[in-house]
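Bit of a strange request maybe. I'm writing a small parser for structure token strings and I need a real example to test against, not something I typed by hand. Could someone generate the tokens for this chain?
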Amino acid sequence: MNKSRLASKLKELRKAYSYTQEDVAAVLGVVRQTYSHYETGKRSPNFETLFKLAGLYSVSVDDLIQLTIDIDRNDYFDAPRPTTSSNDLSELVEYLNHPYNQKKLRFLTNTEKELIFFFEKISEKDKREILEFTRIKAHNM
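Reply from user aminoacidic:
Good idea to test on real output. This should exercise your parser:
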């Protein structure tokens, strides 16, 4: 694994998703300076961190390590934006990386995945209200 190529790819992915170093560091559970060292090549992420990064950017670990992906900023129009709570973002990454959820969500866009993640956290009453609202919006198109 070429450290400088991985470092530049991490920076390019982060910018393509419009994340700050603080956002990514919070998801990884490290301080910003540690994540900054990943982007400069001073440190290499461990395997667990590589899995989290791959999940965050919706790429395989193999693609991340082999650097076989090309970033096209236009392909990332539906990337989830960091929320005001980095804990929500961290929980979202864990949710998306869970094997059961990966099978269930494989063919959904990032926006659809984020909607399902938050939908599963609310009460049944709120779910019914949101479904009714969604039906109304769909019929008005």
